[in-house]
Amino acid sequence: MVLEQLKDGAQRQLQVFDEGTRQLTLLLCLPLIDGVFATLLVTGAVQNLTDYLLIALTVFSGAGSLAVLYSYAESIEEAKSMVLKAAPVLVVGASLIGLVAPVYDQLFSSQTLSYTAALVLMVIAGKLAEIDPAEKVSTTTVLVTGLVLSLQSPGALTLSLGYLAPAALTALTATFFLYVATYLTNMDMELGYIRKGSALVVILIGLSVAGLSIPSELGLVVFGVSLMASLA
Length: 232
Hints:
globular
């Protein structure tokens, strides 16, 4: 119900935006609407500053968001305006997801949900890398199937504020990155490098969620190298 309310509210808000801002806002909010972000929160993928950065840079404000931003904005000021208009929708939406995420934790088996999150991230990585089989797989279908398989009998459902700060901080980090990226609006960037770098980072996050020991700093190094390559 909350996800539906969020979707309806976002659609009403999008009606007052120009086309570019609507596309950017919709793309930024997709992980909130399809349940991916809530799943990442409850499976421990968003716990510290490094996690905030990696999720913000790949799941939210990766190559797709940059492509929309640079495609529609003809100047730095216009790009800034787009980001500032989209930011409140993303932050408020992420905060709402942070509030209801504890329900996920109580309704679903955390171990099964972790494997589901890892599989969803692999599909996302495949789409970022433009691998044909991954393009044919719906992340929503994978997620819903995983949720059904991990469903358990809960006790009394309770809400908590435990996921609110990580959710809001991740959204704010994504917004900050996009705002900084507006200064590169007039530069000739090769977004393919960012897309492939993001795919590698998402794979690393997925492996970590699945239980493998992956140095958290490795993802930042990979994304940093891909960003520098895109500017070369």
